[in-house]
Structure formats: C-alpha cells, structure tokens
Amino acid sequence: MSRRLTLFCREMLQHRSYTQKVDVYSFCIVLWELITGLLPYPSMTAVQAAFAVVNKGARPIIPNDCLPVLSNIMTCCWDFDPDKRPTFSQVVKMLEAAEIEIMSNVRRARFRSCPRPTATGKD
Questions:
Q1: Where are the beta strands (DSSP E) in the chain?
Q2: Which residues are CB-neighbours of 107 under 8 A, at least 6 positions away?
Q3: Per-residue pLDDT tens for 87-105?
Q4: Lower CB count within 10 Å: N or C terminus of the chain?
C-alpha cells in the first residue's frame, strides 16, 4: 500500500462510510505534493502519519510562498468534516476561477523538485 493511501481522511481510516469527499481530500494531498515536490509527513511512518491525521487533525504544512488561492483550495478540501469539503465540481470551478492567477505565477515560479536549466538549455 502506498504511503498516500494511508493518508486518506479519518472516515476511511476509521472504517466509517465515506463518499467522494475522501477523494477530494486525497486530490489535495496530490496537489500539495505537486506544489512542494515533497511527500507529506516525511519524518513519520505511514502508521504515525495516519494516526496524526485521524487523531490530531494533522495536515501537510502549506509553504508560505504558495499562492493563496491554492492554499485556500487545499485547506477547504482537507476540512475535518467531510460535509464541509467541496465536491469535485466545486473544486474544478475554484481551479477554473483561479486559472489566470495560477498560470501567470507558474511562469515565474521555480519548482522545488525540478532542476534549473543551464545556460545551454540542458539540465
């Protein structure tokens, strides 16, 4: 089982009934990984991370330089109460509304996990 699968939200880890809101939560874990180029909770085992998510409400730390619009999307998708998380349709609308801001900033961003090109254009 991959580490990401163990980071599903409390309703899945506690064997409660769950809906697509679990997938919304997981989507934003992947979004966080794309933004940071990191794995969440690197100092924890998968079991420790799952315990922290379920029992302590742990969430990955959003970098200070993250676009506020993306930070807001992740935060609402990670809500402890699945009923307060947006649907995927709502997430898509939020991303579409933020597209111009995201795209204009991506052009200026330097991704943490990507090597910087050299003067010759080669990595």
A1: none
A2: none
A3: 999 999 999 999 888 888 7
A4: N
